[in-house]
Amino acid sequence: TGVCDFGAVAAQLAEVSAASGAEVRYGEEVRLVDRRPWGVAVRTSTGRIVRARTLVNCAGLHCDRVAELAGERPGMRIVPFRGEYYELARPELVRGLVYPVPDPAFPFLGVHLTRGIEGGVHVGPNAVPALAREGYGWSTVRPGELAATLAWPGSWRIARRHWRYGAGELHRSLSKRAFTTAVRRLLPAVAEDDLRPVAAGVRAQAVLRDGTLVDDFMIKESPRAVHVLNAPSPAATASLPIGREVARRALAHLAGV
After folding, report:
1. Which residue segment(s) compose the domain that 178 sits in?
2. pTM to 2 decimals?
């Protein structure tokens, strides 16, 4: 397999899109979605009104909320899980990508070692519940978002079903020694001092009402709208085929199919 600089990929996609007539707007939070006979009107936090014949919702951590703003009942809820990473101080220990055999019961891969394009090696992640949709650290807590997660029946069913797995993830989050022990299963030469904390990520995990962790793409359609409600990690490494599928569905709406 291979790795890429996805920030550069996204910048290139934005440049190509702009050259084709698209407009990229940053810092715009969707506040209202109003479906009309001719299409949709979206109002953002800055007061802008954006009108279009078809809405494509790829809002990641907020995709379920955008779907609800559009009048949908998506039947799932985004439950955020923070992935905590370390950087390997001795990157020469790893020459490629070292991945464990995945457990089919979980959509999380577990601790692995990924060599980046600049030669550094990321180790991780843990998968621990985030206390906010954009909760990149334990100190980031948004009571309203946390309450919404706890109010979703699927969250409690996950906790009852997988509490042992979750306890292990929390232990590795709070104990660097425990995290190092997990890494040594793949890289016996690693020492605790070899691991340096780096920025975390948050996974937008779709969870059904019965507690099922959605591990495949979930795309739902409604009149004049396409909602991408779960996009696992291949979305970053195989974005063009996925983009074509989303575009095909959006264009079918424009054609009235």
Report:
1. 79-208
2. 0.87
